Amino acid sequence: MQPDGSGARGRRLSAYAVALPLLLALVTSIGLGPTSASLADEPAPVGGSGIGDGYFPLDGNGGIDVQRYEVHDRYEFLSRRLSGWTRLTVTATEPLAAFNLDLLLPVRSVSVDGAEAPWSRPNRHELQIAPVTPIATGQTFDVVVEYVGRPGRIGWRGESNWVASDHEVVAVNQPHMAAWWFPSNDHPRDKAVIDVSITVPRRKSVVSNGELVGRVVHDGLATTRWRSEQPMAPYLAFFAAGPFQVERGTHQGLPWLVAVSRSVPVGDFERSLRLMRRSARLTRWLESQLGTYPFGSVGGVTTSLNPGFALENQGRPVYPVMAGGGRTIVVHELAHQWFGNSVSVQDWSDIWLNEGAATFMEVRHAETHGGPSGQQWLESLYDECFHDTQFWRLRLDDPGPGRIFDTAVYERGAMTFQALRHKIGEEPFWRLMRRWVADNRGGNASTADFEALAEQVAGTPLDEFFDVWLRGTTRPGRTAANGLG
């Protein structure tokens, strides 16, 4: 993610935790779903209401591993109403009498392997499902959830993530977005293939992740289907619907597809389209630095709406209208395809790995295109922030849930990468960067994993260096040991 312009990067976020009531008490007392089915006398455990992230305890869920989402949504622009159903293909990682999904929309029905299943809402964020027959470890099963609501009226723990007008809508946000438009196991640790079908009036265009499968028009409505074959974290899935102009092509063998809303003012429209067309060329440059691009196609979407940030949605980032500095932001979001999308955080406390690396690649692009060297940039920013105690006070490896998008996470994160580069040398540093994205491709990794690989590649202990840059809460000393001077 990169906010639009140079303003503060803070986001309205908060940790939350809600105790999980007993399953049978919920089914019988709340009465939100069918209750005729009974569980075994000694039911298997109920999967946890979170995956174990300390910042967001209700993100994701215990006991399940989603393999695939098939999302079928219809959106009505004037009423702002979204209705639909999603089929999830899920594998149990433990015996389950019940399990949770993350969803904020009101639920109409739930089935498991075709059988109507009892369900309840322990809180507004969680949907708890009790299959008629308990599920065994390793069993793969299908869940279908039907829902309807107005996502623009839904807020959760300080987040109101739906961005829409009477003519356009974009489902984009971080670290949470899926729960506003489909049920999910909403944490980067559980990536899955996502297949999205969106129905809107036929005069509207729909863009999403992956490849366009087809568009079917019927009675004034059009259903557009997109499929991404590479698994992704749920928050990286998106759709944009509205008066978009769509272009596609191939650059050096890499397919690209871009879209710009025709509601963007004329002067900004042409500039935005030119900028989006650069996506494939900039991706090939990033490949020259980091290794093979991890996805099948690339592109970008410029919306006329103002979400207040650009976001690295997998394979096709979404941007607001950008003026000066737009190319830098595009480099940042495309760098996230390696750092954040392919190699995702283990926990949200590891966010500096995403944002620091993407910001560092901005610096690297400037360095290789006539700008200052990375070390000149590092020394200059160090001097600029020399007396800014707030800038140095944040622990990069543990910023807290309310500050995961703080300026320091981006800029000090990038400073850490450049200081490490200066300390261990050019060849080992770039070998480290390429090893990191290659070894962890398609998976998750933590700050501790990065530190261990850095020491392995450098062939020297780096504990003191990382203590200063990641865990320190004061300005690093200007020493060679710290990659400065």
Output the keywords.
8-stranded mixed beta sheet, single chain, metalloprotease, Immunoglobulin-like, 485 residues, Zincin-like, 11 helices, metallopeptidase activity, Aminopeptidase_N-like_N_sf, alpha+beta, Neutral Protease, domain 2, 26% strand
Overview in brief:
26% of the residues lie in helices and 26% in strands. The chain contains eleven helices and 23 strands. The protein has helices spanning 23-29, 266-277, 279-290, 326-335, 352-367, 374-384, 389-393, 407-424, 426-439, 447-458, 463-471; strands at 2-3, 64-76, 81-92, 99-102, 107-112, 115-116, 119-120, 126-129, 140-149, 163-164, 169-170, 192-201, 205-208, 211-218, 221-232, 239-242, 244-251, 254-261, 298-302, 309-310, 318-319, 344-345, 444-445.
